[in-house]
Amino acid sequence: MKYLACLITLAATPALADEAWVTNEKDNTISVIDIATQEVTRTIETGERPRGITFSKDFSRVYICASDSNTVQVMNPETGEILNDLPSGEDPEQFVLHPDDRHLYIANENDAVTTVVDVQDRKVVAQIDVGIEPEGMAVSPDGKVAIATSETTSMAHWIDTATHQLFANTLVDSRPRHAEFTADGAQLWVSAEIGGTITVFTTADQAEVGKVHFAIPGVNQDLIQPVGFRFSPDGTKAYVALGPANHVAVVNTQTLEVEKYILVGRRVWHLAFSPDNSLIFTTNGVSGDVTVIDAATDEPVKSIKVGRFPWGVAMRPTPAN
Amino acid sequence: MSARLIALRAILLREALRFTQQRSRFIAALVRPLVWLFVFAAGFRAALGLSITPPYQTYITYETYILPGLCGMICLFNGMQSSLSLVYDREMGAMRLLLTSPLPRWWLLFAKLIAGAVVAVLQCVAFLGIAAIYGIRLPLVGYLAILPAILIAALMLGALGLLLSSRIRQLENFAGVMNFVIFPVFFLSSALYPLWKMREAGPLLADLCALNPFTQAVELIRFAAYGQANLPALGWTVLAFVLFAALGVRGYDPGRGLTKSKG
């Protein structure tokens, strides 16, 4: 009887494993990948066209940009149940959670605004006019600066998070898609999809300090479209998804030179490190899979089928007991 | 040591001696697949990656895809070369001498096959080493697992060569047979392109490729290169080896084969 009780308890307990959560833009679902087994263990329904995805600091909630439902959904990651919707403004595509764990900065592509939402009160705190078709969102590690990149205006807009006012606009190359601060907050990197570059700024004076260029032998330059990227935990490398070029570039953050190109699936869009930083998961939109890269060797090890047009990816570590 | 083992050792040593002394043969055996790898595969580079088919777990470049096929190519040419040397030996006398020994003929031919297969394995090891320096690498376990697979493939293709050599009377005829055997066997296989690609071109072509024992040998090598056993490919390759070897030995039977026809 005791064994039976143990078995029932085990069966009722959610699997204790690090997970990668992947939004499938055309399936209106999230694929949950068990990082240890590298297999999809759950598929959870969401609102229409899920794209941006991020977890709360304690991983008790997951926020999902349901772009065509014009909302940000808040989900219980244990049960997959939608807890509530947030007033996100129209067509939310990407967002970033402020280090205070309370404010979401959301890019509203169709309205040319950035919406700031208080996730506790579920209220819009501010709407900030930015350039046309905002997409990339970032917040500095100290939480003082938020960035919105506008695809059509080709700018990075610098927002003072205390006043919710723009205090600088900096030009980047055509169609900026994604922005990230370095871990120390000293630099801001912005990728430009059509321009095919990443522009690097110093945060203190918003001055451009360099550009990253890409070239893959045998691949037409037009196909090289940098989109999502992440810094390695030690800050020495940046991994850049190159869209229809089907490669991830490994960039030396000191020299801004590309050290390696890693072959992944078709139209690689975003990527994320596993919680233990040993693996990188890339979302490959057209091939409908996620490529796993060994971060120690920078070699691709496996591609895992998920839903149609995977877009964003966020990591959920093993729940602490 | 029994007489059979002495004979086996002698034939192995003779083949090893040839292998080490005929440097041009060794270089030629390496240059052929290297040209395919560095020139042909570069042209078909598929920089955007090939679709995932087993045993591959993710997207690969064309160079990675054809590596096992080129190991198969080394075995194929080595098998044919070995059979060419059989015809030569038979014409020039060395083989005649060997076949007059009191040991069973099948054993002598089998020893010859083993010796040829070991040479093929050595050539493949050198080829894989150069490919690794160039940056086309296998998983570590693959470098071990691929060796027996190459040996089996080389034995099967050596047996095919043995069968052919048992049917050829003169050295001059050999070039024609090479053209009629090597090219169809190599191109109608999965060495250069995956079977699904052939199926797109036509189901008949894909079926012919699947039936080709060389395809099975290449797939055996391909799966072994990634630490996996492809049992159907192994079964078909072994079956083809048994069949070719039996027919080849029968061809060398004085009562039935060439010796009889020469009177």
Automatic annotation (TrEMBL), chain A:
Regions that span the bilayer: none
Coiled-coil zones: none
Entry keyword set: Signal
Positions of the YNCE-like beta-propeller domain: 15-107
Signal peptide: 1-17
PANTHER family noted in UniProt: DIHYDRO-HEME D1 DEHYDROGENASE (PTHR47197:SF3), PROTEIN NIRF (PTHR47197)
NCBIfam families reported for this sequence: beta_rpt_yvtn, PQQ_ABC_repeats
Protein name (record): YVTN family beta-propeller repeat protein
Organism for this UniProt entry: Fuscibacter oryzae
Taxon lineage: Bacteria, Pseudomonadati, Pseudomonadota, Alphaproteobacteria, Rhodobacterales
Automatic annotation (TrEMBL), chain B:
UniProt keywords, alphabetically: Cell membrane, Membrane, Transmembrane, Transmembrane helix, Transport
Coiled-coil segments on the chain, per record: none
Name under which the protein is recorded: Transport permease protein
InterPro entries, per database record: ABC2_TM (IPR013525), ABC2_TM_bact-type (IPR047817), ABC_2_transport (IPR000412), Alc_ABC_transptr_permease (IPR022403), Nod_factor_ABC_transporter (IPR051784)
UniProt key word NADP: no
Family: Belongs to the ABC-2 integral membrane protein family.
GO cellular component, one term: ATP-binding cassette (ABC) transporter complex
Residues spanning the membrane: 26-45, 65-88, 109-134, 140-164, 176-196, 233-252
Subcellular location: Cell inner membrane; Membrane
Any one GO molecular-function label of the UniProt entry: ABC-type transporter activity
Recorded superkingdom: Bacteria
UniProt topology in membrane: Multi-pass membrane protein
Span of domain ABC transmembrane type-2: 24-255
First-listed, main subcellular location of the protein, grouped into a coarse class: membrane
